[in-house]
Amino acid sequence: MSDWISDTFTSEVGWTHLETLVDIGNRMAGSPGEREAMEATRDALERVGARNARIDPFEIQGWVRGDSAIYARDTTQSCIALPRSPAGTTSGELVDLGYGLPEDFDRDLSGKVVVVSSTVPDHYDRFIHRREKYYYAVEAGAAGFIFANHVPGQLPPTGSVGTADAPIGDIPAVGVSKEVGARLGRRFEGDEVTLDVTCEAPETDSGNVHAELGPKTDDEVLVTSHLDAHDIAEGAMDNGAGTAMVVELARALAAREDELETRVRFVCFGAEEVGLVGSEYEADRLDAERSNVKAIVNNDGVVAGRTLKLHTHGFDELEAVAETVSDRFDHDISTIPEQLPHSDHWSFVAHGVPAYMVGSVKEGRGRGWGHTHADTIEKLESRTLREQAILLTELTVELTRDDREIPHADPDDIAAALEAEDQAEGMKVTGDWPF
Known about the structure:
By secondary structure, this protein is of the alpha/beta class. It contains twelve helices and 16 strands. The strands form two sheets. The chain has an eight-stranded mixed β-sheet, sandwiched between helices. It has an eight-stranded mixed β-sheet with strand order 3-2-9-5-6-7-8-4, sandwiched between helices. The radius of gyration is 21 Å and the shape is globular. Homodimer. The monomeric form is inactive while the homodimer is active.
């Protein structure tokens, strides 16, 4: 076993692929850069020994950023449009709703332009997603939506609005830095402000990259990530590192292929950042064959911190596998049993498929540098990628063992868990409730 460990700890394959991805630049869903990332990832998987490397294309509603601004009295405040915001100009009285908790929207906001924070108070019992806050604003009649970062540093946040049924949102939406958000609330609350958003929404295409290793069994373990990133940054953490991890795991697993007792399929999804489109496409494509998916290892947020963090979605056997690997290597792995209905694993967990959401332990709440201009490669360390790849390689091999039975869940039990965790209400507001 030591040879594969030493090879992984000295490998440059994953980090080199990360550099390839971030140097592409714009990898927005449906863009030429996303296509370049697909092709580079397909080729990388083939080079490390995975078979049948290919791209499965699908159509999506694209979105291309233009210029945006907030006009307040005689000033122009810097902002960026949130992907899938509609184009347009809207004016209204500025209302600062602070954290933008559900109860903060319990008022008539007809014609108002609302400002909300990207975080929630430390004592609050759950995180309120951007899209949930956006649709509370829509339901309350707001004319415009301003999403203010809680992380200092002149970093306006991005992140999509819209739903699967209506990909383009209802009202103009922009992100502003913490500093601009504070200025708006301090100087202009109660004033009329104007949001001006320009963008285009062409029909385009994205795609999923596939490859595989191991025996040609009907059952399979999926090792996944997403290829796309928001257009304002390199997308190193979100999610170049996740796709680099998939390539590194494919290299390590190719060296251990004779140990795999179940087929391992690598899938790097397109169009995650605009509503999990690629993974939904794949989950629908599998349909009845979803029962053959033994488990999913979805990498989204790896390498950002040195300790792995695994959401296990209530699957006890996934918890047990993580504990086995942690004990075997005497290395901490943080596990969280709650549901996490964001990222590509969720397209399968909602149907009862066992899945990990693999991230990393970080300080603070929320995305940190993610979804901002600051999501760049120099904030990551190659040693962390290699260390985590060793643990995740072992985790994947363990999942393929014939004596590791991982029962699927009844979707009704997943729904009940979301209700018990107070997540259902927000998902119903955003149109993400699948039950």
